[in-house]
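User: Quick one: structure for sequence A, then sequence B.

Assistant: Sequence A:
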Amino acid sequence: MALNLTTAIPISLLLLFLFVQSPLAVTGDSPSAYDVLQGYNFPVGLLPKGVIKYDLDESTGRFHAYLNDTCSFSLEGSYQLKYKSTISGIISNNRLKDLSGISVKVFFVWLNIVEVIRDDEELEFSVGIASASFPIDNFYECPQCGCGLDCGNGRTVRILSPGLGFGTCFYPVISSLRTMNVSQGVNRRLCFARLSHVYDCELQIYVAIKQLLSE
C-alpha cells in the first residue's frame, strides 16, 4: 500500500528529531577533535597527535576522544603526561570538566587532571587538590606520543613551566594536604625552600617504610 502524505510528514519529522538529538560522531566531512577544541576556545595542543575519532553530544557537552593506544611523553623541563586510549569529559566555552583519562606525574605520584579552564591567555589545570596555570602559547602545537615536542626535528622545545607549576609551593603534610596560593610575584627562594621540604618529607617517609619492612 502506498504511503500517503499525512503519514510521511510525521515520519520525516521523527527522523529529523532523532538526527538532531544524536551525539555528533566524526566522519570524513565532520570537524576533527582538534577543530572542536578550537570551537570551544581551546588550543589544539591539549590533545596529542593521533586522535582517530571522537563523539560529542552537543546538547550536554559530553565527549569521548579515542586514540589507538595509551599515550605518554615527557615535556623537557616540565612534567610527564599520560593519556589513556579513551579520554572523556564535558566541554563548554573556556572550560573542560569531569575529565577522565589524562594524568600528570607530580614528584613521584600520578594525579588525574580533572578540569581545565581558560582564563584569557592562560590555561589553569586542576588535579583536585592543586592547580597550576600555564601560558596558552605552550599548547599551540600537539605533542606526539613517546617524544612530546622533542621529536628530533631540530626546533626549540617549549618548556611548560618557566615559573610556577603543580609542584611548586605545593607540599604534603603527614596529617593533611595543604596548598599555598602563590602569585607570580612571590619570592622564588620561598618556593625552592618548599620544594626542598617536599624532598625531605618524601625521603623521611621512604626511610621509615624501609625500616618497617626490614623489621
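Sequence B:
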Amino acid sequence: MVVDAVLAVTLAGVTVVYALQTYGAQYRAQGWRPFDAWAIGLTLLVHLPLVLRRRAPWVVFLVACAGLLAYTAARYQPSVNPWAPLLACYTVIVHRPARATVAAAATTGIWMVSGTAAGIQPLLALAQSAICVGTVWYFATGMRSLSERNARLAELTERLRQEQELRARHAVVEERVRIARELHDVVAHHLSALAVQAGLAGYVFDSDPPAAKAALASIGATSREALEEMRSLLQVLRLAPDADEDGPYLPTPGLDGLDELVDRSRAAGLDVRVAVTGRPRPLAPGVDLCAYRVVQEALTNVLKHAGASARVTVALRYGADRLDAEVGDDGAGDRPGAPLPGGGLGLIGIRERVKLYGGSVDAGPRPHGGFAVAFSLPLPAGEA
C-alpha cells in the first residue's frame, strides 16, 4: 500500500511537472487547451487511484482509462498523460487473469484514440499501442506465473511440514504403545511376586513369624517399586484409541541378553567391542529393558547408516546412582547398493524410552567421523 502510494504520487507529480514544462507555443498553435487547473485535476484523477491498484485492480483500471478519455476529450494534449492506464493494465493482468484480455484490448484502444488525437498516423498509433501493451503483457504474465509458482511452493512446503509433524506425532504414539506393551510384563512380574509373597506370609504367619515379617517387607518394597514404575508410565504415556489391545506380548529383555545382541550384530558384519566399567548389577526391570532397547536401536542404526564391518564400541559405565552408556561407530563400514531407508523415527523412540525413566540422551555425529548415541539413566537408591 505504501509503495503504491509513493508510486502514484511520484508518477502524478512527474506528469504535472513535465506537462507544465512542455506545454509551449507549439501545443497552443495546434489548438490544444493550455495545461490549467482542470488539466491538473484530470491528471490526478488518472494517477492517484493507483494507490489501490492491488486491492481493486479492475476498478482502478476503469477509473484511469475514463480519466484519460476525459482528459483527451477536453482537448488537452494526451501524449503527456498515458502511463497510468498502462500500469493499471499490468496490475489487472497479474491479479485478475480472467479479465486480462479485456484490459489489454481496452488499453490498446485508448492508446490508439489518444495517439490519433495527438496527430499520430493511425497505423503508427496502432503499432505503438501494440508494442507497449505487448511488452506489458509479457512482463505481467511472467510475474503472474512466478507468483503462482511461489504460492504453490509455499502451499506444498506447508503441507509437507504438517505431514512431517503428523508423522512425528504418530511415531511418538506408536512408540508409547510399544513401551506400554513391554512394561506389561514388568507390571505382571510385580503382581505375581506380590501374590506369592502374600501367600507365603499368610502360610507362615503363625509358625514362622520372622519369615512372615520378611515376606511382608518384601511385599512393601515390591509394591513401592511397582507404584514408582506405574507413576512414571502414566506421566509419559497417553491413551492411544487405535492401539491393538490383543497384540502379542514378548518376554522383557535386559542387559543380561547383551551378549546375544552383540553376537547377532557381529553375525551381520559389525565389529563390536563391549567395554564395561564399574560393578555390573541387576537393574530394575524397566530400566534394564530401556537400556537394552536403546543399545539395540543404536546398533541397528549403525548397520543401516554406517554399514557392515563398521567398528562399534558399546561402553557401559555403572555408577553409584546412574547407568551411563554410549554406542559409537567410526562410520567406515561397507554398505553395498542403495542405502537402507530410515526416517529418524528410531531416535524418537530412543528419546521417549529414556525420558520415561527420567534419563537423558545425546545423539549426533562424532568429531572425527561416525555417529554416537549416549544416554544416562538414574538408578533407584536400592540398586546403588
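Residues 238-245, 335-341 have pLDDT under 50 and may be disordered. The first strand starts at residue 271 and ends at 277.

User: Thanks, that's what I needed.
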